[in-house]
Amino acid sequence: MAELPVEIGPMYEGERIRAKQMYVEFGGPKAIGAELVQARSMEEVEDGKIEIIGPDLNEMEEGGSYPLGILIEVAGKDIEKDLEGVIERRIHEFTNYIQGVMHLNQRDDIWIRISKEAYGKGLNSLKIIGEALLRLFKAELSFIEKMQITFYTDPKKVEEFVEFARNVYNERDARARTLSEEDVEEFYNCVLCQSFAPQHVCTITPDRISLCGAISWFDARAAARVDPHGPISRCEKGELLDPTVYEYSGVNEASKEKSGGAIQRVFLHSMFGYPHTSCGCFEALAFYIPEVDGIGIVDRDYTGDTPFGIPFSRMAGQAGGGVQVEGLVGMAIEYLRSPKFFIADGGIRRVVWMPSKVKEEVKDAIPEDLYDKIATEKDAVDLESLKKFLQEKGHPVVERWKEMEEEEVEEEIAEAETTQIAQIPAQVSGMTIPLGGGMKIILENAKIHIDKVIIRRKEKE
Amino acid sequence: MKTKFNIEKFESQGISLKNLEIFIGEVIEEEDWEPMGPYPFPSATDLRDWDFKILKRYKPFYAPYDDTCSLCTLGKCDLTGNKKGACGIDLKATQGRIVLLACVVGTSAHVAHARHLYHDIVKRYGKDLPIDLGSEIEVEAPLTRLITGIRPKTVGDFEPVLEYIEEQLVQMADALHTGQEGSYLDFESKALHVGMLDSLGKEVADILQIVAFNFPKGDSDVHLVEMGIGTMSPERPTILVIGHNVPPALDIADYLIENGLEDKVDIAGICCTSLDITRYYPNAKIVAALSHQIKAIRSGLADVIVVDEQCIRADILEQARRVRAPLIATMDKALHGLKDRTNDDVDKIVEDLVSGKVDGVAILDSEKIGEVAVKVALKVHESRKDVKSLPSDEELKELVNKCIHCNRCTLACPQNLKISEANRIAKTGDLSKLRELYESCISCLRCEQVCPVNIPINDVIMKAAMPLIRNEKGKVRAGRGPIKDTEIRNVGAPIVLGTIPGIIAAIGCDNNPRGAKDVWLLVKEFLDRRFIVTVSGCAAINLGLYKDEDGETLYEKYPGEFDAGGLVNVGSCVANAHIHGAAIKVASIFARRKLRGNYDEIADYILNRVGACGVAWGAYSQKAASIATGFNRLGVPAVVGPHGVKYRRAYLGRRDREEDWTLYNARDGSEVRVEPAPEHLLVAAETIEEAIPLVAKLCMRPNDTPQGRQIKLTHYLDLSMKYLKKYPEDWYLFVRNEADLPLARKEELLKRLEDDYGWKIDWKTKRILEGPIRKVDPSFDPTNLERLIRK
pTM for the complete prediction? Predict the structure, then answer.
């Protein structure tokens, strides 16, 4: 892009433009603004067209704050309405690629600053920003065949545009919330993490965002269209083999292939049996607490102890590496909002503990009557206090305890037997070694030299 | 615990024992926390296969400093032109031997330091002092777990670790003897072994001091410390601590605290001791890195000088005497001819030092050192006010005018500084050129010795640079120690998604050819590009010297967390081990690879996956040699500055040798030809402009995701354009498909691939049809180790 007056590239992403370095700003606290991507038919888009409705940069006063609307219209045979949000979120990244331009936030919350230095170098028209965006978008997202950009700076037009954009966001959010596995034919697999965790395969569905929280079904769909053989690829849903745990034939096959045979079956929405594997960058961990027969959630940012008396870092060490661990499953915080959140195991109503920060963050996803019944580190720091809390608050899992107690009696008997067997070697004084078959060991004038005796204790967690 | 017991007679059903003696040599209680890997406490031969694998690709490249050998009385032997010495050794093996020698010496310094700390800490707190680095660090000692298979719970658990290193070190030193090892490859394998021991010894040392002295345990927002010669106050008594072993400095700090003297006496430090004392006592100041040792002393502002070990000037006593600063030596390793007064009465020692009866003393009991140093500083401060350390303005003129421009100083100068020219201009009254020398001058004093008219050149430069020195006030973020496990998890997604292009470790000494600003430039460049930058030692200190247009140092500008654009000061040289540790944790956290006794698997993982690169721009010591070699064995490449060629050996890959760039796919055992990533393991760069793109290149790995490769290639190309004004000649080798191409230049680069390299491009879809070394296979599981092949 030699002909543009400023440089373009990811090295400018971290650039901050302070008030004193700024030529003008758009949106932010002092003016309104919005950005929106719309999918159009091939005929509706004039490729490469950049239009400015209202004054351009060189007609603005230095130091001023102005309203701005950015409308990007795209067309292509693989483009559909569902990809609009994905394309739109890249505006932030690509605008920041431009030297001397800072872009913060998204949607109707945008705040853009142009530096004096860049203006001085010749960045004196929004057309230049449009030009850069056009090229970056088309280089990155090859399914965009045609693209046109309209900048609104006329205050009245911006007002109308922001209003229009808000309606689109609302519709889009409503669709994203209601879209479920049943509505789609295909899921996606992401193996980006295989570069570090060679066996891990993420299955991404409308009801299950990637464990890192960074890739939704829509994002994956877009990525798979750009590069069908890349790390994010289409996964046939196949047949729903087990509707309670959400085992799909297509997911099993893809996981088997992509994990090199290490993973044979996956239950998408259960922590038991064949749970989803974990990489290392999961945002949070769901862990089963047998003592209360409930599920705990702990996120990466929480540094205290879980009710097990150990922190996230210690627990996370047991998961990860693309291994299926029953009762310990990595997940994104967003998954708590999924209607299928470990639905096989009782879903959100089985959750008994989570850090207060997470609880606050996902408040909207927790049924009102349950909210106060889920303990946080402020209510319970160990199993005893957790048990007491749940009982006091009447958490739904308490109902399950009665059944559990009945089972426990049987288990105790079984356990008692094993314990006895295990104790035999400790009874050295008696030296009764149960030898059968009429055999006798005789050692006379014998010497036994042992260089090293290693007593290996099994670790207790 | 040795046990012996006898059974005279024992009769029972099915068993009869008579005169049975049972000896048990050792009873070890061991936890089964992870299955033991193949190589716990590896000997030199255990990992030889791994060494030979990397040495095959990264062939030792020797730049002999001297092509003779005179280590035994058979010599001096001429080794030029394929000649062998009297013992049969050839030039390559001789160079390998010298490299091993440097590594043995460097490692000994770190390990002896660790051992000394161990004794000191066990004496103070006992062996049962727990090793607890906080809730966010589960893998507390990655190198110890990896190499020895021990998961240390208390300080005492390090005893067998140190014993192991010490034994191995003696074995390796033995291999240096005439008539032992003969193959250069085996010398190199042993050097790599010693480098590994070095990393382990450093880890032991730093964990010991963290838990014993309650240093920060991986806190990213740890306090800022004042730094620079300009922060030394002429008004207050100042104790200057120099070296690497912090206990004496700690005791000085404790004495000040206990006696309420924190506002009355300053502690100022040079080199790693200054980094470590500020992890404990935030009031202490970091005066300078190693190269400013003479400058700090000759400023005359230090009232007492306390030296511990390593990187102390051998003529420290003479230098201290010059400014009438009493010297206290505190370690048996560096006594400087001083009388051992450990058992003398404190007041008697103080009296002798204050009266000038003796220039210095050796005190080997650190608790006494605190009291003596503080008392002496308080007493001599007033009397030292008349110390004239630097020439007056008038004297400066005279000295400059004495110069006969013979240029012997420049010839003697390791940095080839143009001293004579600066003097010529200074004769006109313009001191600017002399002042400019201040930054690049490492005060080695070689110039002063050759000057035929006896100009104290160092002092002349310092005098001319007084305006700079007075304003030399910066900030350094105190050493934070380990990287938290949770931080490693946080960066996992950004690394695979390409938003964090790599991890740079700017470490080591400051024999910087053009001053420390070069390192600052490199670090700033990578921070701005959202790399994670870790620093330690003198490199970490020097960064504090420079401020940007907002008057902020990098430490103030960039957060201290291990994240995109984070500047992580781990601490002193021994804290380097946490950088190895971070790479090891990536394998344990993301791939859940077993660490225990599993060195080669983890090194293989790191070499193929973890995009990290070390930079030791001013490396000078034997420790720097062992540090770099230790990184190399673990699969982390390192770039050294131009003086680095004096280590005599580089590990250079050859991108033109296709057969060197084949890996297995662990999934099916197939052999895959890969791009040369990383191209070298140890390489010297001539200029910082050459080093910056090189470092970016060495962050590429075969496992890069397309997003990751795209961003790495973007920076490689961009930095090459920025600093060398050209595209690098090998950039196309790293392109696997169009998704790897930098976004902003995609079309232009496709065109170049077609025109310059004959690749086939489908212009309609903008896809590459033919040309790359290999295609991207998202499930490629690269390894060099046959044993990891799963089918």
Answer: 0.89
